[in-house]
Structure formats: structure tokens, C-alpha cells
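The records we work with from here on pair a chain with its fold. Taken together, the C-alpha cells spell out the fold as the letters spell out the chain. To see the layout at work, look at the sequence and C-alpha cells printed below.
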Amino acid sequence: MRFELFMAGRYLRGRGRRMFSGITAIAMGGVFVGVAAILIVLSVENGFHQELRDRILGATPHIVVAKYSYAPIPYPTGGDSLLRQIANVPGVVSVAPFVYAKTLVRTENGVEGVVIRGVDPEHERDITGISGTIVQGKFNFDSSGVVIGVELARMLGLSVGDRLNLASPFGGTSTPLGFMPRTKYFRVNGIFDSGMYEYNSSFVYLSLAGIQQFLGMEDMITGFEVRVKDVYTSDRVARRITRQLGYPYRATDWIMQNRNLFTALRLEKVVTFIVLVLIVLVAAFNIIGMLTMMVIRKTREIGILKAMGAKSSTVTRIFVLAGGFIGIIGTGAGAGFGLVACWLLNKYRFVSLPGDVYFIKNLPVQVLPQDVILVCVAAIIITFAATIYPALKAARLVPLEAIRYE
């Protein structure tokens, strides 16, 4: 094998003392660019996905337990025993009741449709991180207070201390002029910024007792919010809860709640990987062309080798090793450059993004070991596959025909 390695290295070297010939360097450069580009782009996508997961989990519970069609649940009568059953399920850290409804909010500056969530502020701190995203005021509901998102505050021209009017379609009164919804004024006690436009523009938090009174559903709740130890096992915990409670209750984990979004993100990553692999395929064709030209240029030398007794398999290994060197060196250099670039992007955050377009201000980067391994293995396999045709072409040369005119 040392002979094949020597000959492969000799064919790749340039004239004089150059380590590689110009065409060899170009072939390696194609693999280098392809691998580096794939790693950097996939790492940036991973960073975006991680940031998105963190923002979602910061404002929503890991699991929501409710009846089908969100029918009201008596609480604490009856619901208290449900809470204890959920808390005893393995993997559950904390449980809290909540009320969920959709309604309208009105101020002198306009009207918006919103989602109102009734929570216990003390328990909510154990379930989500929304209390840690307050940018103005406090996360409390004293004096008929509410906490709203920063985008909703901007759209309605509200700040801490201002009043807003919520209209409820439930619990209204019938008059000769028709049905009149129940309305009530609330005071803005805090403004949060979850980092997600949808939450910032549509969520309004009230106290659990306050929303029950406002909606006319005293001693009733919509369901339970659940926090688990490991967010990536929440689907298994949700299935345990569903089995524990039985019909008509069901538990929905955070991935299922955002299934369409995460499915789109996974598809985007797969498509991006396939598109970027085309760069490596282009480099592979470059390797095929380079080795084919090498076979043509080295026809006399190959003929002499075979006339001296070199087997066809030996010639095949020489060109496979030559192409393999290009693939391994190009892949290694590209992976090293990509990892260094990702480290610099993650450490210094010198690539800024417009905050009004994206939900983050700097380019996030997360390198996953499985991505690095997959990219490197795929690149090496593709480059080795590219050596098959030139190697077989060289092995099929007949010594007499190769040196006839020399």
C-alpha cells in the first residue's frame, strides 16, 4: 500500500517544491467551500430554531391539559383532584390552573382582538418565564390590573397606568336593543416582551379570579398548565397524563401546539442541506474532470507501470487514493474553517439583524455534532465516488497501447 500512497501523492504534487498542483488545489477548494458553506448555514439555522424554541417555551407551558373543545372544568371542586393526579405523573415539575378566552380590547386609540389568559402570578413563575420578560411595570394584577405585550401596547398607545376596556361575549345582558356584551375597565400594570410578535401583539394576562369574574365562570377553569423536567420528553409525559386522566381530558405538548411551525422548520433544514450538497457535487465533478485529465496526461507512466508488473487493482487504488486525498483534505479544511467561523459568529455577534423584521438582533449560531459528522461523511463519500470512473479508466489501459507511440 505504501507504493500506491507514494504514487498518489506524487500525482497530486505540483512542479518544483509545491505541495499541490494548481488543478489539485482548485479541486480541494471546491470541496472546502461546499463543506464550509453547509456547516455554517446549518449552524445558523440551528441557532434560529433554538432561539425560536426558547421564545416559545418562555411564553407558553410545556404541556396544556384540558377537555376536548376546551369545556370548562370545575375548580377547586373536582379540579383539585385532577391537579394532584397530574402532579404525580413522572416527569412533571409543577402544575397550575389557567383560564383561556378570546375577546376584544378597546381604547380611545382603537380596537384589537386579543387572547386573555387568567393565571396565578405566583404559580405562573413556576410554569413559564413570562414574568421575567417584563420591560415596564410589574407582573402583578392588583387593582384590576393586566399585563399586556409590547406590540399590543404600541398599537393601542398604552403605557403602565393607562386603562383599557375588555369586552366579553359571555355573561352579558339582553336588552330591547339586543344582546349587550359585558365590558370592564382594567389598568395596565405591566408590559412584557416575549420576543415573539404573535404573543406580544395578542396576549393579555389577568389574575385567575379576575378573569373568572369577568367571564362569569366562577369556580371554573379552562385547564392546567404543566412544566416538565426535560422539554424534549414532554410528548411522552403528555401521553402519560392522557392515560392517567382518561377521556374527556387530553394533554398537548408544546411541540404539538406548534406542530405546523416546527414541521416547516424541519423541512426547510432538509431542503437547505440538499441544495447545499449540490456544491459538493459540483466539486465532485471537478474531481472527476481533474483525475480524467491526469489519466490522459499520465498515460505513458501508467503504461510503464503496468508493463513493469503493476496490477490493474494497483492502478485503481492509486487514483482512488489521489481522489480520496482531495476529498479528505478539502473536507477537513472546510469543516475546520466552518467551525471556526461559527465560533466567531457566536462569540462576537458581529452580524446584526433588523429587530423590526426578525425577533432577534444578532445572528444566532448553534453547531450540532451530528450535523458536522453527517456533512463530513457525505462529502467524503461523494468525493470517493467521484474517483471510481477515472480509476477504472486508468486500470483498463493496455500497456502496449499506452506506450506504443512513446
